[in-house]
Amino acid sequence: MALNYYQPLFEVIRDKERCIKCQACARQCANLVHSYDEELDVMVSDPTECVDCQRCVSICPTRALKITDNPNTFRRNSNWSMQIMTEVYKQADSGGVLLSAMGNPKEYPVYWDKILLNASQVTNPPIDPLREPMETKVFLGKKPRNVKFNKDGTVNTDISPTLELSTPIMFSAMSYGSISKNAHESLARAATELGIYYNTGEGGLHRDFYKYGPNTIVQVASGRFGVFKDYLETGAAVEIKMGQGAKPGIGGHLPGAKILEDISKTRMIPMGADAISPAPHHDIYSIEDLRQLVYSLKEATCYKKPIIVKIAAVHNVAAIASGIARSGADIIAIDGYRGGTGAAPTRIRDNVGIPIELALASVDQRLRDEGIRNEVSVVVAGSVRSSADVVKAIALGADAVYIGTAALLALGCHLCRSCQTGKCNWGIATQRPDLVKRLNPEIGYKRLVNLVHAWDHEIKEMMGGMGINSIEALRGNRLMLRGIGLTEKELEVLGIQHAGQ
Amino acid sequence: MKKVYVNEDWCLACHLCEYYCAAANSGAPNMIKAFAGGKKPIPRIKVEEGSGISFAVQCRHCDEPLCVKGCITGALSVKDGVISCDESRCVGCYTCVMSCPYGCIVISEDSKVIQKCDLCVKNNNGDPACVKGCPNKAIVLEER
Lengths: 501, 144
What we know:
The structure holds two protein chains of two kinds. Chain A is an alpha/beta fold.
């Protein structure tokens, strides 16, 4: 276009004294930002398509590159920010819905950062996790209301099927299609080695990954992609996806261009056909309908696998969760508004849903008030960024957490939030074979294992500090939490006291 | 004996191995200095690519090396399985360059002698520079 209404977001800064013209940046950039001019023997860059994924910066052997914000500014305006103006220009150009990826980046409050943990002093001594046993194992599923014994002392109570986790962390649902096969393999192998679970997402399960079945949660979403007998039987649990934190109330759309041979086989749809997940499940319009699907899946899996129902955190999440607990589901997964996605309409991602911290606190309280907390386990997702967030989530009442974005970061993602372009330079959110091979699962799975091990150590350290040696004793233990800088109402919803109280 | 192997599944054709190799054997203390002032030290490893496949090739350290057999001055020799070149004895006849079936022997910048991969045993690099520098673990040093 002859007239550029908006400018590139980033600028490439190359230190010419450090650059050895090895052209690694040019060879690695799928957005074709860098190139080598043979005639002039110089490296040149055009930042127009740069997404600040940091791949070139990371691979440069002499650290000659920096990507910075473009210092060019529109006339400052607190109401009409440069981003808002740029979005208007883009829509005036294209006439289309704005698309974004990964979690909501807006400056909403992060409640995790406004909650502080307790530690023991004097009367209730802390525990040293390096010297004393510390338990982070959890079981997800229904817990019996009471336990009956036979005369010989053996237990005479039916225990519902459960998932056993070595540490209360699982990898969130990310479909094959939205992420690459190598990313899936990294997650599957890491989950197997760690004794936790990864989630297939709604894209079915590639034949090569059936061997990781005992550590796989298979998802059934509104598009029903790749759902058949073997799929359900292979997973350790089945998750019904009702909603996703990044885009509550809407479905999904994987463009036909990404439906290559392998993905078409796995999803069981024709090659090149758009994979459209409807916004609702067309057979679910009530809790009774949900109950039918829950029991259909239980029937199909001979009542041997727990059924998870995943919902987005929305305004009346507590009432919805109560309904789900009564539908026969074993586990409720709640995804907060900062949860990631491979593509979502920007306006939905940035404006719909509520923070997971508040949703979790109100769901746990509601289920306890109704006396049905034991009927379900609660798993939370939507931007659990560190082991401290995990500890706070458990103390607010969660049984375990799902991590998606943190897991992708371990695989190299730098949150450039451009997954929807399909040109992920890190080989994660792409199906282009030359890009997919950049993620070597041998490296990827070890980095995931390292991450979860590190978090597990830190969880134990924080628990030890509180004088708690079992994660079970931390669950819903809101006395271990204090708010800082929160209003009376926020404290009430979170069910915690203010620091100093 | 541990040798350098390449797994083409993970080779990204970034060519960084060539630059790490050239810098490690240049005698310069770091990569920037090795290439300073437009210098272009020649690597002993080369990425071959085409039709969507790429892989790095360097000396295979053959059990029965044709290059050593053909060397007219005894500059090329095998020690502990590593084939290396004594540059003080090389006369630049390039017989080895022609006899190597993998094309792994290259001619030095001043065209007087040959140079080849010696698994970085002669420089201060420790493990081979290509193995250490590969960003995707496509190049490995292992026993097979």
